[in-house]
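During the second year of the project, the team shifted from modelling isolated chains to modelling whole assemblies. The rationale, set out in the original proposal, was that interfaces cannot be judged from single-chain predictions alone. As a representative example for this report, we include one of the complexes processed in the last quarter. Its constituent sequences, exactly as entered into the pipeline, are reproduced here:
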Amino acid sequence: MLIRFMKNNLIRPSIVKMLAYTPGEQPRIPGLIKLNTNETPYPPSPKVARAIRRILNGSLRLYPDPVCLNLRAAIAKRYGFKIDEVFCGNGSDEILGACFRAFVDGGQVVQFPFPTYSLYPVLSKIHHARIREIPCGKDFSLALAQFDPRATLTFVANPNSPTGTLLSNAFLRKLARRLKGVLVIDEAYVDFAKSHALPLVRTEKNVIVTRTSSKSFALAGLRVGYAIGNRELIGALFKIKDSYNLDRLAQAAGQAAIEDIAYHRRLIKKVNRTREWCRRELIKRGWHTPPSEGNFLFTRPARHPAKKWLDILRKNKILIRWFEHPQIRDWLRISIGSDAEMRQLLKIVDKSN
Amino acid sequence: MLIRFMKNNLIRPSIVKMLAYTPGEQPRIPGLIKLNTNETPYPPSPKVARAIRRILNGSLRLYPDPVCLNLRAAIAKRYGFKIDEVFCGNGSDEILGACFRAFVDGGQVVQFPFPTYSLYPVLSKIHHARIREIPCGKDFSLALAQFDPRATLTFVANPNSPTGTLLSNAFLRKLARRLKGVLVIDEAYVDFAKSHALPLVRTEKNVIVTRTSSKSFALAGLRVGYAIGNRELIGALFKIKDSYNLDRLAQAAGQAAIEDIAYHRRLIKKVNRTREWCRRELIKRGWHTPPSEGNFLFTRPARHPAKKWLDILRKNKILIRWFEHPQIRDWLRISIGSDAEMRQLLKIVDKSN
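Output from the structure prediction step:
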């Protein structure tokens, strides 16, 4: 961050103490291969640009639809839900924050596994929740009994980042039924996985599934997230949202991307194929690389410590992600880029492996 | 809203009780004259579309700059501040919410005048603040002594909506010095006014000025708000913001709009000229219409009650805004449209006046 924070009685003490969430770097070095923030190497559907161009001819001066009807209708149609079971947000990050404002009073328990998306603890602190971190096993597995049934809000990223692991719907259903509070299943990466939890929304009244167009729809540059859940929960999110939380271009782009099913499927297939090939190549090189259900691999490298590999790759203009925490500091998260980008990665690996 | 809210112990009791903020209608009737949400009748700078088109050729798949450096640099340059005195948000609405998360713990006093922007009480309820509403005088004036010095957060929309009144910088400076907490001066409409409060940011450590590109920059369809304040306060907003709160297109569009100073000035001049002409015309017709410093007029109509005029105009495909509250139910807020739109309004008025 740019700014140092001093004691200041204008600012909430809990915020003064807090460290900001650190997103993966977004540097602007030409020729850089960015495998650090799980973006997609391919562009979005060409229908996205067309939809945006249409709006440029006139309506930018007008407020967007405050309730995103067309976009929600497209999502509802594609996944077989009713429009009032769908909420849209400025990225799924906004939806995660909205879940706190709708469901959590200060002092209540919010739980999530570790390691996982590092925004959950940041949001928990902002909203004065009591954080309960559930440590994953050595193989990044979780047991039902680890979850506190009384938690007001439970987050499970599925597939999980950075580990790439997927919980079964049978597990998630048991978890939902164990919990008194709301279960948010954060499916940012689910389109790259072999199953998804939307069927649970139909049977479990306390489940919200969140998704994003940043990964499999190749729209990280826009911010289009959505949530699917029963209408009571979705209705609460509507109550506390900003009046115009999603701009015209994002709504139109999101809709175009969601509706282009053929393009979406092709893109996912391509990324997954590259992931599987790349996984085999890393394993050949002695890197411990469990299966991943996301558009990234989580791998324990050979020969050098993970941090050293981070530096080696960075020197060669390849950015990947490393997390400074005892449980995962031996691991690297590598986003799946194009085949050429992954070949370049393997080439650099081979030089120092 | 689409959804009825039932008792549900998954949702915070305060949210269950709450009514959602109701934005002005955004209907899609062809030929409608929209004078109800203070949009601008003219398109944004042509440089906006150009900036957006450039991004369509490639980088939508990549995350935006999380800290909006180029946009903030443009704002800092235009208004003579340092880049770390500038924060950008997904509309100034997001910034207003961020002020709660950064400065207000539950149970603290948040104050604002009445009538004013109806989002302040909504946000106050979401964040468990104790609301202190400061009633305006009959002429919509405010006295310094009405403000509670101990309030944690004070909002003053300046110019105020729906009244169009402007507080002087001398008043605001005294107010800032009276207050122990943070003073947010919401300048959504200030570009149409004869003064602005940015000079106060330089001398008062507890002042944040918020602005939007929705009005004078004709970018309501995007969501680009910004805040200028001392770096301690701005730094706190950065800590609690979503990691990528402003998308690529919004950042580029906002920057292009801010940098096209000549276009911006022309647009403001045009709107203000129409406003003054329209005000004289309404006064001629016996409508009590005080001066306004926004891109709207607040007027007490002749002959029929305000609500009746709302219906008459709606029947004639003109939307304006009426607020159901005893103190202002005799008034109408009319956004300044194009000359042709205002002529049409006056024509309908003449038929029933």
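Chain A touches chain B through 91 residues (CB under 8 Å). Residues 1-7 of chain A have pLDDT under 50 and may be disordered.
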